[in-house]
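From the shared-data thread, chain only:
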Amino acid sequence: MHPDGTVDRVEFHDRPETEDEARAFAKYRDLSTLELLRQLRTAEWNADVAQTERDQWKAIAERTQAELAQAERQLAAITPEGWELPKAVKELLAHAESHGWRSARAWMPRGEDEMLLKLVVGRHTLPSDAPSRGTEWRFELAWSCVPGSARRAGAGLACTPDSPQWHDAPSVRRIRELISEHPYAGSAT
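Structure, as tokens:
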């Protein structure tokens, strides 16, 4: 209605029912408004229950996947029978763990008489660390092992707070120095 007394007429029209809609709505045509609301409430409750069950099963599946991944990592870290960790790897692992850094290793067969040993050593940055662009220290190294000897396979990869993009890893000696210079104090987090 306008100030001059004229009225605009607005009409709303539903699009015509399809055959599928007509069949689906047929059972609701003779229901009272109260009964329609009861049906709606029941449908909403059923949808909530289904959503809750779906979320519970999803959580179970995610937990199972995490447990499986953990078990696979533990299995990969087991030194195969007849093989041993190279001295440099043992020393690096011991040094990293004594300074609070985390580590992981995995053995992978390469042919009949060769194994590839992959090693990851790293830690997250702390608020007490110097300001930097990155959020973690991470070194990924590999050794090619044959019975009785081992040699480092390639340069490896590194990601540091000052250089967060992946780049060639430094020498094992330099990695040990960096670990000593940047120990991880778990209580500081």
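The mean pLDDT is 88.
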